Amino acid sequence: MFRGYVEPTLSLCLWLLLSVPPSNIDVHQCLGKCLSALITTVGPELQANTSSVVTARSSFLVACAVMQDHSDSLVQAEAIACLQQLHMFAPRHINLTTLVPKLCATLSSSHLLLRRAAVACLRQLSQREAGEVCEYAMTLVDSKDWKIDITETGLEGMLFAMLDMEDDRQLISDIHDTLVSMLQRLAGENLTRWLALCKQVLSASNESILGLDEEAGEGEGADDNEDDANADATFKAGADPDSHPLVAARWPTRVFATQCVQKIIAVCEEISPDHFDLAKARKMKQHNYRSDFLVLHLSELVRMTFIAATSDSDQLRMTGLQALQNVIVKFAKVPEPEFPGHVILEQFQAQVGAALRPAFSNDTGPNVTATACEVCSTWIGSGVVCDLSDLRRVHQLLVSCLQKLKSGKGSSSQLYSETAATMEKLAVLKAWAEVYIVAMNIEEAFEAKHPTEDEDEEFDNFQGGGESLLSLVTPELVSLSKHWLAALKDYALLSLPTGNGKIRRKDKLSLLSIFDHVTFPLFLPNDSVRV
Q1: Where are the beta strands (DSSP E) in 257-374?
Q2: Helix, strand, coil shares, percent, the chain, to 5
Q3: With CB atoms counted within 10 Å of each terminal CB, which end of the chain scores lower, N or C?
Q4: Per-residue DSSP letter, 361
Q5: b (16+ CB within 10 A) / e for 180-190
Q6: How far apart are CA 399 and CA 458, in angstroms?
Q7: Looking at residues 454-467, what average pLDDT do you find?
Q8: CB 160 within 8 A of CB 211
Q9: What's the distance, Cα to Cα, between the start and end of the chain in Å?
């Protein structure tokens, strides 16, 4: 076993680090790799308090300090890697008060290897001690001892800024992992800070993060009958230009920020259901003004998803629409305490319609339209909108997609591949099927509850002008039923074993994956389609 040779080898490495001239960069780099191997050899034993282990641990720390002071970036990177390994095996013996500032300073280095090593180390630190890392980083704001370009957004903001400048895939992946680890551990206690950070990345304006608290109440008093045009104007970021406007982040960074918004919702859902109860949130806020709840930031969530869903990037639009769908699902049943019988999402009807409308234009890609169809069916089936006259705004968007079901019609089949066009058509069929199922369930529930009555106040909640939700679907049922049955027939044929080879195996698997990805609801509910 090599374990018995660790101490003499470590002593030799330390002696060479102190005696070999710094100009011999290769020697110092090799010594760093040797130290890394020695740390791995000792492993968890570094946590022990025996005299030999304490001496070895001190020698490792001294060797890392010597390499950190070296002028070459390769040697410095090896020092950071060794400290990362020491933290893995003996986290209690690594001084974060000095390590974190050095790592933050290294993030601004011009050497890619150093930035890679620093982010990789921060990634590991944030998995265990995210709070301490962010706290020590915040002490560097306006610090005279460290020349670090770090602002009030802290280390999180600095990492987001790096995403806009870095091209290395591994480095970007490590930054993503670091931010996600911080978010999962800290977002529940610092909702305002994290939402403000995501909003700043998504917005192309120069809005102050400190001013977001004042905007948190926007939308709470919005009129239910607000026009879509007003919604577009209300939710456009950056109304007042400044002499030094912020440059919009690159679309991959904004996609990640939108994904972070969805992760924040998931974190809050795991922490407490009070994050989705407006009455409890307001009551607890009165008793403890420092407490924070996600439901109090609903207007900001809608604002951010609107910005993403109406952007110029297809990937960002898809992510924004998915985030909007997530917001609808999580808050659809949250009641409005001041207006019994209503939910808090009702005030954002115009904003939801304005966010969906651009996805149904003729120049929009089929992948974006397919995602928007899912959001439409979720919105209609959520029960948020009770007045059919308001519901028709979103319903008309689905009606406009029916033309694409006809072979050879629509821009999708002409400008995009057959696979993309098929995915879009299946998404349209799925959305209509989900709306039809919801309408049928409402109709059947009413008939079971009131078999001899024609009208009822509860049923009128999903009526407008004497019409029911089913009346919006009925005019299209003749055409839809044919397409539903045709889609099921195609799926059945594709599911059969390969026969005469009329369909190549590769094409067959591609089409099957599309069907599986769309995941039809049961097109024919309990007692088949009523035409």
Answers
A1: none
A2: 70, 0, 30
A3: N
A4: S
A5: bbbbbbbbbeb
A6: 27
A7: 48
A8: no
A9: 80
HSE-up of residue 167 (Cα within 13 Å, Cβ side): 0
Q: Per the structure block, which two tokens stand in for 7?
A: 């101490």
Cα angle 74, 78, 81 (rounded to 5 degrees) comes to 140
Maximum C-alpha span of the chain: 98
Hey, what are 223's tokens? 């009129």
Burial class (CB in 10 A: 0-12, 13-18, 19+), 50: exposed
Place of tokens 């029911």: 468
CA distance 223 to 254: 30
Query: DSSP states of 219-238 as a string?
Result: TTT--TT--HHHHHHHT-S-
Query: Element (H or E) spanning 417, and its range?
Result: none
Q: Which of 64, 56, 2, 72 is nearest to 31 (CA)?
A: 64
Query: What are 217's two structure tokens?
Result: 């109440």
Structure tokens at 466: 């004497």
> Closest Cα to residue 377, out of 419, 443, 429?
429
**Per-residue model confidence as pLDDT tens digits over 181-193:** 999 999 988 899 9
DSSP secondary structure letter of residue 247? P
Amino acid at 22: P
Q: What is the band of 62 on the pLDDT scale with cuts at 50, 70, 90?
A: very high
What is the rounded CA–CA span in Å between residue 446 and residue 66? 78
Provide the pLDDT for residue 267.
93
The Cα–Cα gap between 199 and 301 comes to 9
Tokens read off for 103: 């790592």
User: Nearest to residue 304, comparing CAs of 197, 160, 170, 386?
Assistant: 197
Answer for the pair 499, 451: CB distance below 8 angstroms, yes or no.
Answer: no
